[in-house]
Amino acid sequence: MSAWPKLLWAVRHGQSAGNVARDAAEAGRLAKIDIATRDMDVPLSPLGEDQASALGEWFGGLEPDERPDVILCSPYLRARQTAQLVSKAAQWKKPKIRVDERLREKEFGILDRLTHLGITQQYPGLSEQRGHIGKFYFRPPGGESWCDVILRLRSVLEMITREYAEKNVLIVAHQVTANCLKYLIEQMDEAKILEIDSKGDIPNCAVTSYRAHTNESQDQVMKLELVNFVAPVKNSGTPVTAEPDVPSAPGA
Q1: What tens digit of pLDDT does each residue of 150-190 get?
Q2: Of the CATH numbers 1.10.3720.10, 3.40.50.2000, 3.30.70.1320, 3.40.50.1240, which one belongs to the domain with range 7-26+44-104+146-235?
Q3: What is the bridge-based pairing of β-strands 7-12 and 168-173?
Q4: pTM: predicted TM-score of the whole model, two decimal places
Q5: What is the torsion angle, in degrees rounded to the nearest 10, for the CA atoms of residue 27, residue 206, residue 107 and residue 189?
Q6: Nearest partner of 17 among 241, 249, 188, 193, judged by Cα
Protein backbone atom coordinates (compact mmCIF):
# COMPACT_ATOMS: atom_id res chain seq x y z
CA MET A 1 0.00 0.00 0.00
CA SER A 2 1.17 3.52 -0.76
CA ALA A 3 1.74 6.12 1.92
CA TRP A 4 -1.22 7.53 3.80
CA PRO A 5 -2.31 11.16 3.47
CA LYS A 6 -0.56 13.52 5.86
CA LEU A 7 -3.93 14.54 7.32
CA LEU A 8 -7.34 12.95 6.91
CA TRP A 9 -10.61 14.42 8.18
CA ALA A 10 -13.96 12.60 8.14
CA VAL A 11 -17.00 14.88 8.55
CA ARG A 12 -20.67 14.03 8.72
CA HIS A 13 -22.98 16.34 6.76
CA GLY A 14 -24.99 19.07 8.50
CA GLN A 15 -28.50 18.50 9.79
CA SER A 16 -30.76 17.55 6.89
CA ALA A 17 -34.45 18.02 6.19
CA GLY A 18 -34.64 14.22 6.51
CA ASN A 19 -33.32 14.38 10.08
CA VAL A 20 -36.03 16.90 10.94
CA ALA A 21 -38.77 14.86 9.25
CA ARG A 22 -37.65 11.69 11.02
CA ASP A 23 -37.82 13.39 14.41
CA ALA A 24 -41.33 14.65 13.65
CA ALA A 25 -42.50 11.19 12.56
CA GLU A 26 -41.05 9.49 15.64
CA ALA A 27 -42.58 12.12 17.94
CA GLY A 28 -45.97 11.66 16.28
CA ARG A 29 -45.68 7.85 16.37
CA LEU A 30 -46.12 7.66 12.61
CA ALA A 31 -45.21 4.63 10.53
CA LYS A 32 -43.69 6.61 7.67
CA ILE A 33 -41.35 9.59 7.50
CA ASP A 34 -42.74 12.44 5.42
CA ILE A 35 -40.03 12.93 2.81
CA ALA A 36 -41.15 13.60 -0.76
CA THR A 37 -37.76 13.25 -2.43
CA ARG A 38 -35.36 10.37 -2.81
CA ASP A 39 -32.91 10.01 0.08
CA MET A 40 -30.07 11.17 -2.19
CA ASP A 41 -31.99 14.40 -2.94
CA VAL A 42 -32.73 15.41 0.67
CA PRO A 43 -31.19 18.86 1.28
CA LEU A 44 -29.71 20.43 4.38
CA SER A 45 -32.08 22.12 6.80
CA PRO A 46 -31.49 25.84 7.49
CA LEU A 47 -29.75 24.78 10.71
CA GLY A 48 -27.62 22.31 8.75
CA GLU A 49 -26.50 25.13 6.46
CA ASP A 50 -25.46 27.18 9.49
CA GLN A 51 -23.56 24.20 10.93
CA ALA A 52 -21.65 23.70 7.66
CA SER A 53 -20.77 27.39 7.46
CA ALA A 54 -19.54 27.38 11.07
CA LEU A 55 -17.34 24.38 10.32
CA GLY A 56 -15.99 26.13 7.22
CA GLU A 57 -14.98 29.17 9.25
CA TRP A 58 -12.99 26.88 11.55
CA PHE A 59 -11.27 25.19 8.62
CA GLY A 60 -10.50 28.61 7.15
CA GLY A 61 -8.57 29.52 10.30
CA LEU A 62 -6.14 26.62 9.96
CA GLU A 63 -2.55 27.18 8.90
CA PRO A 64 -2.06 26.85 5.11
CA ASP A 65 -0.18 23.55 5.37
CA GLU A 66 -2.98 22.15 7.55
CA ARG A 67 -5.76 22.80 5.02
CA PRO A 68 -7.25 20.19 2.68
CA ASP A 69 -5.75 19.60 -0.75
CA VAL A 70 -8.95 17.86 -1.88
CA ILE A 71 -12.50 17.39 -0.61
CA LEU A 72 -14.02 13.98 -1.31
CA CYS A 73 -17.76 13.88 -0.77
CA SER A 74 -20.80 11.69 -1.14
CA PRO A 75 -23.03 12.46 -4.16
CA TYR A 76 -26.04 12.88 -1.86
CA LEU A 77 -27.28 16.47 -1.90
CA ARG A 78 -26.88 17.10 1.83
CA ALA A 79 -23.22 16.04 1.68
CA ARG A 80 -22.48 18.08 -1.45
CA GLN A 81 -24.13 21.14 0.10
CA THR A 82 -22.07 20.67 3.26
CA ALA A 83 -18.82 20.43 1.27
CA GLN A 84 -19.72 23.53 -0.77
CA LEU A 85 -20.66 25.60 2.28
CA VAL A 86 -17.52 24.53 4.16
CA SER A 87 -15.38 25.54 1.18
CA LYS A 88 -17.20 28.85 0.75
CA ALA A 89 -17.02 29.82 4.43
CA ALA A 90 -13.34 28.85 4.57
CA GLN A 91 -12.75 31.14 1.56
CA TRP A 92 -10.73 28.47 -0.21
CA LYS A 93 -9.77 28.93 -3.86
CA LYS A 94 -8.75 25.31 -3.69
CA PRO A 95 -9.29 22.43 -2.96
CA LYS A 96 -11.43 20.89 -5.64
CA ILE A 97 -14.55 19.03 -4.51
CA ARG A 98 -14.49 15.50 -5.90
CA VAL A 99 -17.77 13.57 -5.70
CA ASP A 100 -17.41 9.82 -5.14
CA GLU A 101 -20.49 7.57 -5.13
CA ARG A 102 -18.69 5.05 -2.91
CA LEU A 103 -19.05 7.55 -0.04
CA ARG A 104 -22.86 7.49 -0.19
CA GLU A 105 -24.89 6.58 2.88
CA LYS A 106 -25.82 2.99 3.61
CA GLU A 107 -28.78 2.03 1.44
CA PHE A 108 -31.85 1.03 3.46
CA GLY A 109 -33.78 -0.78 0.71
CA ILE A 110 -37.43 -1.52 1.54
CA LEU A 111 -36.99 0.02 4.99
CA ASP A 112 -36.35 3.46 3.50
CA ARG A 113 -38.53 6.22 5.06
CA LEU A 114 -40.02 3.90 7.68
CA THR A 115 -39.88 4.68 11.39
CA HIS A 116 -39.16 2.02 14.00
CA LEU A 117 -42.91 1.61 14.43
CA GLY A 118 -43.44 1.32 10.68
CA ILE A 119 -40.75 -1.35 10.33
CA THR A 120 -42.18 -3.35 13.22
CA GLN A 121 -45.70 -3.15 11.76
CA GLN A 122 -44.87 -3.85 8.12
CA TYR A 123 -41.89 -6.19 8.41
CA PRO A 124 -41.90 -7.91 11.81
CA GLY A 125 -39.94 -10.84 10.38
CA LEU A 126 -37.13 -8.56 9.24
CA SER A 127 -37.00 -6.90 12.64
CA GLU A 128 -36.60 -10.31 14.25
CA GLN A 129 -33.97 -11.36 11.73
CA ARG A 130 -31.96 -8.18 12.27
CA GLY A 131 -32.06 -8.78 16.02
CA HIS A 132 -30.65 -12.27 15.50
CA ILE A 133 -27.96 -11.39 12.90
CA GLY A 134 -27.01 -7.96 14.24
CA LYS A 135 -26.73 -4.69 12.34
CA PHE A 136 -23.18 -5.32 11.13
CA TYR A 137 -24.21 -8.23 8.86
CA PHE A 138 -27.95 -7.63 8.39
CA ARG A 139 -28.88 -6.61 4.84
CA PRO A 140 -32.48 -5.43 4.34
CA PRO A 141 -34.00 -6.45 0.98
CA GLY A 142 -32.79 -4.00 -1.65
CA GLY A 143 -30.37 -2.43 0.83
CA GLU A 144 -26.92 -2.85 2.32
CA SER A 145 -25.30 -4.22 5.44
CA TRP A 146 -22.45 -2.43 7.18
CA CYS A 147 -20.16 -5.00 5.55
CA ASP A 148 -21.37 -3.91 2.11
CA VAL A 149 -20.50 -0.31 2.96
CA ILE A 150 -17.09 -1.38 4.27
CA LEU A 151 -16.38 -3.28 1.06
CA ARG A 152 -16.86 -0.20 -1.14
CA LEU A 153 -14.92 2.00 1.29
CA ARG A 154 -11.87 -0.28 1.07
CA SER A 155 -11.45 0.81 -2.54
CA VAL A 156 -11.88 4.46 -1.52
CA LEU A 157 -8.98 4.18 0.92
CA GLU A 158 -6.88 2.38 -1.69
CA MET A 159 -7.52 5.28 -4.08
CA ILE A 160 -6.67 7.84 -1.40
CA THR A 161 -3.33 6.22 -0.59
CA ARG A 162 -2.55 5.96 -4.29
CA GLU A 163 -3.58 9.45 -5.41
CA TYR A 164 -3.25 11.57 -2.27
CA ALA A 165 -0.23 10.17 -0.43
CA GLU A 166 1.21 12.82 1.92
CA LYS A 167 -1.61 15.23 1.01
CA ASN A 168 -4.42 16.57 3.21
CA VAL A 169 -7.80 14.97 2.50
CA LEU A 170 -11.25 16.01 3.78
CA ILE A 171 -14.08 13.48 3.45
CA VAL A 172 -17.69 14.69 3.77
CA ALA A 173 -20.16 11.83 4.07
CA HIS A 174 -22.73 10.23 6.37
CA GLN A 175 -23.10 8.54 9.73
CA VAL A 176 -22.67 4.89 8.76
CA THR A 177 -20.03 5.83 6.18
CA ALA A 178 -18.02 7.70 8.82
CA ASN A 179 -18.26 4.80 11.27
CA CYS A 180 -17.19 2.30 8.60
CA LEU A 181 -14.20 4.48 7.67
CA LYS A 182 -13.26 4.51 11.36
CA TYR A 183 -13.55 0.72 11.42
CA LEU A 184 -11.13 0.42 8.49
CA ILE A 185 -8.59 3.09 9.43
CA GLU A 186 -8.32 1.96 13.06
CA GLN A 187 -8.45 -1.74 12.14
CA MET A 188 -11.36 -2.56 14.41
CA ASP A 189 -13.55 -5.63 14.65
CA GLU A 190 -17.34 -5.91 14.70
CA ALA A 191 -17.65 -5.75 18.48
CA LYS A 192 -15.51 -2.61 18.83
CA ILE A 193 -17.22 -0.50 16.15
CA LEU A 194 -20.70 -1.50 17.34
CA GLU A 195 -19.71 -0.59 20.91
CA ILE A 196 -18.74 2.88 19.67
CA ASP A 197 -21.92 3.14 17.59
CA SER A 198 -24.08 2.17 20.58
CA LYS A 199 -22.84 5.19 22.56
CA GLY A 200 -24.70 7.62 20.29
CA ASP A 201 -25.04 9.10 16.84
CA ILE A 202 -22.28 11.13 15.23
CA PRO A 203 -23.18 14.83 15.58
CA ASN A 204 -23.89 16.73 12.38
CA CYS A 205 -20.73 18.44 11.08
CA ALA A 206 -18.61 16.66 13.70
CA VAL A 207 -14.95 16.19 12.76
CA THR A 208 -12.86 13.06 13.27
CA SER A 209 -9.26 13.45 12.13
CA TYR A 210 -6.13 11.37 11.65
CA ARG A 211 -2.48 12.27 11.07
CA ALA A 212 0.12 10.03 9.43
CA HIS A 213 2.54 8.59 11.96
CA THR A 214 5.47 6.17 11.74
CA ASN A 215 5.31 3.62 14.56
CA GLU A 216 8.09 1.70 16.30
CA SER A 217 8.09 -0.92 13.54
CA GLN A 218 8.66 1.84 10.98
CA ASP A 219 5.20 1.23 9.52
CA GLN A 220 3.12 4.23 8.59
CA VAL A 221 -0.23 4.34 10.38
CA MET A 222 -2.94 6.93 10.90
CA LYS A 223 -2.96 8.35 14.41
CA LEU A 224 -6.33 9.50 15.75
CA GLU A 225 -6.38 13.18 16.80
CA LEU A 226 -9.97 14.47 16.95
CA VAL A 227 -13.08 12.40 17.69
CA ASN A 228 -16.53 13.81 16.88
CA PHE A 229 -15.12 17.32 17.38
CA VAL A 230 -18.03 19.81 17.47
CA ALA A 231 -16.31 22.89 18.91
CA PRO A 232 -16.43 24.76 15.55
CA VAL A 233 -20.22 24.49 15.52
CA LYS A 234 -20.71 24.98 19.26
CA ASN A 235 -18.38 27.97 19.56
CA SER A 236 -20.19 29.77 16.75
CA GLY A 237 -23.41 29.68 18.77
CA THR A 238 -25.00 27.23 16.30
CA PRO A 239 -26.95 24.38 17.93
CA VAL A 240 -25.28 20.97 17.83
CA THR A 241 -27.48 18.11 16.64
CA ALA A 242 -26.87 14.36 16.72
CA GLU A 243 -29.61 12.67 14.74
CA PRO A 244 -29.59 9.36 12.83
CA ASP A 245 -30.34 9.25 9.14
CA VAL A 246 -33.53 7.49 8.12
CA PRO A 247 -34.77 4.99 8.95
CA SER A 248 -33.93 5.18 12.64
CA ALA A 249 -34.02 1.50 13.59
CA PRO A 250 -33.62 -1.36 12.99
CA GLY A 251 -32.24 -0.58 9.56
CA ALA A 252 -29.28 1.65 10.36
Answers
A1: 999 999 999 999 999 999 999 999 999 999 999 999 999 99
A2: 3.40.50.1240
A3: parallel
A4: 0.93
A5: -110
A6: 241
